[in-house]
Amino acid sequence: MWEWITRWAFHIHLIMAISWIGGSVFMFVLGITLRDKKAQKEVYPHVGPIFGWFEVVALVLLLATGFIMGINYHLFEILLNPNGSEISDALLNKVVLVSILTIATVVHFVIAYKTNGRERTPVQQFLSRGSSMLIFFLNLFVMHYAIVLRNIL
C-alpha cells in the first residue's frame, strides 16, 4: 500500500500545484481587472466560496503529498541536518515559504469566509488583500524551489 501511495504522491502533488497556482493566477487577474465595485459584489460571493474550498482541499493534498515525498526521499533528514548543499538550502527555503503561504492562506480563507457577502472592515480588507497578494507571489517562489528540488532528485 505504501509503495502505491509514494508512487502517486508526486503526480497528485503536481496536479494540485498546477491547480493551486493556476487558480491563484486566475483570482489575481480577476482582482486586478474587475475594477467595478458592483461587478465585484456580484462575482466574488459566487466564485469566492467555490474557489476557497477547492483551494483548501488542494492545500491539504499538497501538504500531505509533500510530507509523503519528504519521507520517501529522506528529505526530513536533510531538513533537520542542513549542510549548506544545494538540496539542503532549496528544501529549507521551500519549507519556510510553504509555512508562510499556509498561514497566509488560513488568514485569507477565514476573513473571506466570515465576510462573504458583507462589507469588510478596513483591517479585514487590508489583511484579505495583503494575504492574497502574498499568496500569489509566494506561489512563484515555492514553484521555483520545487523545480530546483525536482531537478536535484
Automatic annotation (TrEMBL):
The chain crosses the membrane at residues 12-32, 53-75, 95-113, 134-152. It comes from Sulfurovum indicum. Keywords: Membrane, Transmembrane, Transmembrane helix. This is Copper resistance protein D domain-containing protein. The lineage of its organism: Bacteria, Pseudomonadati, Campylobacterota, Epsilonproteobacteria, Campylobacterales. It comes from the Bacteria. The keyword Membrane applies.
